[in-house]
Amino acid sequence: MGQEKDKKFLDAMESDIMNADIPETEKNKLMKNFLHLKEQKINLMITGATGCGKSSTINALFNTEVAKVGVGVDPETMDIARYDLDNLVLWDSPGLGDGKEADNRHAKNIIKKLNERDENGNLLIDLVLVILDGSTRDLGTSYELINSVIVPNLGEDKEGRILVAINQADVAMKGRYWNYDENKPEPPLVKFLEEKVVSVQKRIKEGTGIDVTPIYYSAGFKEEGMEQCRPYNLSKLLYYIIKFTPKEKRLSFVENVNRNEEMWKDNDELKDYRKGILEEFGETVSDCAMKGADIGGDIGGIFGSAGEAAGRAIGGVVGAAVGVAKEVGKHIPIVRHFCGGGGGCYITTATCEEYGKPDDCYELTSFRSFRDNWLINQPDGKELIDRYYKTAPAVVELINKQPDRADIYRHLNDTYLSQCLKYIEQGENEKCKDLYVNMMEFLYEEQTKWQ
Ligand SMILES: Nc1nc2c(ncn2[C@@H]2O[C@H](COP(=O)(O)OP(=O)(O)OP(=O)(O)O)[C@@H](O)[C@H]2O)c(=O)[nH]1
Ligand SMILES: [Mg+2]
What we know:
With 451 residues, the protein is an alpha/beta fold. The chain has 19 helices and 8 strands. The strands form 2 sheets. A 6-stranded mixed sheet has the order 2-3-1-4-5-8, with helices on both faces. α5 links the parallel β4 and β5 (162-167). α7 packs parallel to α9, α17 runs parallel beside α19 (429-450) and α18 packs antiparallel against α19 (429-450). The chain binds guanosine-5'-triphosphate and magnesium ion (MG). Residues 54-55, 67, 70, 76-77 line the site of magnesium ion (MG).
């Protein structure tokens, strides 16, 4: 469905590299790195007791309704089921609690899968997500699964390969203290869930010696004839999944995250998970795509900045869904300012579109309004505007050729433009004009360095 559209973002990054103004050899290295990143497979195992919500979680997190959600009493997922979403491979495995014989079979299957190696000899499963049913007091079989089956088979980096998540937070107290209107827990339920987190952590530490940081969430649920109930803390869950996934593999999430914005809305606000997700992707691009390429270690010249690159990758996917597009926007206001020419639009409209910046965004509208309603009416206003349109495009073109163009733009933004915007907001038009003139003077002086 949305697949073609999603691909666009990785393709856009590819064409950024193609069009970058850097030596051919560096371009090739970069492209090689990028194509390598694009090909990486992620193998995510999702396990937990019958009915804990494995299928619901998969369906909430990812693009398509791949995993069948149980409606009857029989465990729907008898053995390990595999779902291929391009380069994201999900292994949905039953946990324990189906009777002795079935438990033994499940445990054997899980152990085998955890020890399986890929064609390069690395462990196949990158991360095991163990889901606990938060609505039950009896987590005995889940501890058995974690402590005796999973942890002993995680290999060397045990703590980096397991994530424990407590689902069904909404019904942890049988539905009490869940605020259905706002889709979030009330303080007594928060306290209850936090205690649960601590006790799960303690039981695993006692049983295995390893430290895990469980999180609680709700995958949301859908019943016949009822409206879909929104998940809670799904962004948080995705943030941790991405954080625990090896950096060079993360791009494979880009195309497969659920595009339904509603799913990502409600979270505890302990951290800005959307921004966190963005930063994690940023690391992938800055650390992995640039590997071995000698272009001053600055990806700004190609993508604008790490944030932009990540934003571009996820801008239309997680961005639309998780809302990071707005965050990315904050990193690149300069692009908007120079797009604000109205006729003299320099960094192309296409670039703005790529970053998801509408032509009528707040900053652009503010600057245009300042120019057309106030500046033009000042004694020297028209002259200033004319001068800007005569010189700005050439200056921008020069800046774009600099290897440290991202730093230059950042400096312009931090020192001048963001302050100008503040002045406009405060009605201090005169101050805005002065600062703007200072910026132009700075540019005239600097440009000799760039030629
Ligand atoms: N209230 C509530 N119900 C949930 C939540 N997550 C899942 N459910 C419900 O729990 C039931 C089991 O969910 P599944 O996703 O099928 O669980 P599963 O772990 O895949 O189950 P098996 O494949 O049978 O082992 C379904 O009726 C879901 O609608 C949640 O966060 N809150
Ligand atoms: Mg299932």
